[in-house]
Amino acid sequence: MQGADPDLVRRAIDTGNPLPGTAGFAGRVDGALVRDILGRYPLFVEDRVPTAPPNWSPDRTDLEEPNSFPAGHRRRDGEEPQQLWSLPDPEPYEHEREAVSDLVDAIGEGIAAARPDDPKSVAIAFSGGVDSSVVAANFDAPLYVGGFDGSHDREAARTAAAAMDRELRSVEFTQEVLKRAVPEVARAIGRPDAMAVQIALPLYLVAEQARADGYEYLAVGQGADELFGGYAKVARAPDDPRVDADTVRGAQRELIATLPNQLERDVLALRAAGLEPVAPLLHDNVVETALKLPADSLVDDRGERKRAFRLAAREFVPDSIAFREKKAVQYGSLVGRELDRLARQAGFKRRMDNHVTQYIRSRVV
To answer: pTM higher than 0.85, yes or no?
Structure first.
């Protein structure tokens, strides 16, 4: 069982509690496969003989025909997966002060639970945004940022690290390195499509350098945008066609439901680079608190996103960082731009459908 004590998982099964106080889990317990509600640990199955227990592994490359095991499900031998858990739908806080106070406590609990036994084994994936800065503020570890020369992320990380008086190690990407890493990442995550590879590449390349420097874990700020209303499409609900929900809180839940797919990608990329992720903002206590935030604590009346999280972040980082906006990693690192350039140099022109995806698939063959 990855991520949690089997007895705790058994209690979660018996009580139906989807958030029993873990940072996720996946594996086999009492003759059945289980995976937590947010899919924070990858799990893959392969059915070779329908009546026999399936082959399974946390590493998709161990199996010939891996299929992702659904989050929040249990599968007994000889049966189909059955959903065990659903996200709770609690009543929202009435007072923002209480919400922010509870969120500060929950973040602290998530940090404490995620901290490895050897503090010197951890490096921090750092972009200079509020998410990674909150994580960085709670670990005495070097900060790593990656990107091409002139990228937004490297400059944002430099100014944020200076404001926090922290050591920053900058990993400069090049087209040669990107070209080498594209098939490695696509194979590791099992998704040779443009968006998935663009997002995974910066994590992979930063993790490679941290691993070369002797670290075993990479602490990340994953999950904050989904939990706390960080996306424009959440702020614009119900008018944004990219979400089905007709409320901000509904859109938040819709985005949280995408986490299993995203986290699988990120964890596999980091593990392929030789590091294990540490994601304190995805601890059950943080998730439970986020689900109780009212709409105006996710997006305020001025359109500021992640309001409650930013207010809580002030307990850990300067205001200049707590209220800073950030670009998505594929754009902030310029990986998206440079991957497009690699594709066109290889003859995959923009007039072609999904030209970057076609390029990636040509490299994986």
So the answer is: yes
